[in-house]
Design brief:
Layout lengths: L15 H11 L6 E5 L12 E2 L9 E2 L3 E4 L10 E7 L13 E5 L11 E4 L3 E4 L2 E4 L9 E2 L10 E3 L7 H9 L4 E5 L3 E7 L3 E2 L10 E2 L2 H9 L5 E8 L3 H14 L2 E5 L10 H8 L1 E5 L3 E2 L5 E5 L2 E6 L3 H19 L10 E4 L4 E2 L5 E10 L5 E5 L8 H6 L2 E5 L5 E2 L4 E6 L8
Length: about 425
């Protein structure tokens, strides 16, 4: 059965944006969360807003090493009497008065009465007296209490991912546990009689099962719990049984291979026996034969068998869907407009993701270079690339110097 009004097997190719919009509209975040210790929550998605239980900083403190002073009645070359020291964790106990100063170090609480810190480089010291070479303004080199965060202020939102900065912020506020969404359980497998496990000699006509390792690498950074179901044979009954069982136990099932129109491409047929086919085939190159459906409690993504198609369809469809299921707030991939260094060829008709390398030129301008070997089977080119060059459906390529859209794989680009 199908869940959309149109039969997905009879319509034309769906544009990527249309397919993704339908998928994200169908998926709701998991209705389950848990409390976790801050360390265990790294990489997880917040299930509720977080408000500051205290000011940050909790007290007014020095922004650098120097001398705490009272700015009222200061005059050039008028000596100030040193009356004590303030260190981080060891504040000066008294109240500072006009004509006095306290030696203070970065992070130490500013003494009562003081309203500025003069950096030590702007001071001449003679015994217990100092002479100012610079008259400070009130508030200079001071971090006021609550200057970063006020008590009760919302500091993180439901749907935020807890990366290093977020963990540090929570710890600075004294928050030791957080409520996060439970990770969706994602089962994945590859299909095909030609696939051979690693460590086994290849028989004629066989290939190593690389897609499962790619899927593991693609799933690993996400806030999901992946489970490897191994390799499944080209057998409709066994595939249907595998899908049915996985649909009972997992939140998402992802497969590679068997999604096209050949006689041995059986996963679409297996899906319609045990679940619902929602859409099939998108107007993307590589990656046209993508299946999306439902198997009992699980969402199902059937990706193509060609290895580059696996990466493209996962990044453009599966990753944002898993992100939504895990409770993350909506996002768009980072895309940049960059001049192209070489000629790119493409046939009009489908949105195309060509593999390229972002390069920082000697003039400080970023450029992108399309790589040779754009076949959907060519993993070497993908391994050498650091970005996709995103060419619109109507495009027929690009000439050197043309500005093209680029989607980096990472936010850090390494030099050769």
């Amino acid at each position: 059965m199908t869940s959309f009004a149109d039969d997905p097997c009879r319509g034309g190719l769906l544009p990527l944006e249309t397919a993704l919009t339908r998928i994200l509209a169908a998926i709701e975040p998991l209705d389950a969360d848990e409390w976790l210790d801050l360390r265990l929550a790294a990489g997880r998605i917040l299930a509720r807003d977080v408000h500051a239980p205290t000011d940050l900083p909790a007290f007014t403190n020095a922004a650098m090493d120097g001398y705490a002073v009272v700015t009222a009645e200061l005059a050039p070359e008028t000596p100030l009497t040193l009356v004590g020291r303030a260190l981080a964790g060891k504040p000066f106990a008294g109240t500072l008065r006009s004509g006095q100063c306290v030696r203070i170090f970065t992070g130490a609480a500013v003494p009562r009465g003081a309203d500025a810190v003069v950096m030590q480089e702007a001071v001449r010291r003679e015994g217990n007296r100092i002479y100012l070479q610079h008259l400070p303004q009130s508030g200079e080199n001071i971090r006021p209490a609550g200057g970063d965060v006020r008590r009760g202020e919302r500091v993180l939102r439901r749907g935020d991912r807890l990366a290093a900065a977020q963990l540090g912020l929570l710890a600075a506020l004294g928050i030791s546990t957080v409520r996060v969404f439970q990770r969706p359980r994602v089962a994945y497998f590859s299909s095909g009689d030609e696939l051979t496990p690693l460590g086994t000699p290849l028989a004629p006509g066989r290939i190593y099962d690389s897609n499962r390792y790619s899927l593991y690498g693609l799933l690993h950074p996400l806030p999901v719990a992946p489970v490897d179901l191994g390799r499944q044979p080209d057998d409709r009954e066994r595939l249907a049984a595998c899908l049915a069982q996985a649909g009972e136990q997992f939140d998402v099932v992802v497969s590679t291979g068997g999604a096209s129109v050949g006689e041995a491409d059986l996963l679409r047929q297996a899906l319609t026996r045990v679940g619902e086919l929602h859409l099939w085939r998108i107007a993307v190159k590589p990656g046209k034969p993508l299946i999306f459906g439902r198997i009992r409690r699980a969402w199902y993504f059937g990706l193509p068998g060609n290895p580059v198609s696996v990466h493209v369809t996962f990044s453009q469809i599966v990753r944002p869907a898993l992100w939504r299921l895990a409770g993350g707030r909506p996002f768009r991939p980072l895309r940049l407009q960059v001049p192209c260094r070489n000629q790119l060829r493409k046939a009009a008709g489908r949105l195309e993701f060509q593999r390229g390398r972002l390069i920082l030129g000697g003039d400080g301008i970023w450029q992108v270079e399309g790589l040779a070997g754009q076949g959907s089977h060519q993993l070497t080119t993908l391994a050498q690339a650091n970005c996709y060059i995103v060419l619109p459906a109507e495009s027929t390529g690009a000439d050197p110097g043309d500005v093209v859209e680029v989607e980096p794989f990472e936010t850090s680009i390494f030099h050769d």
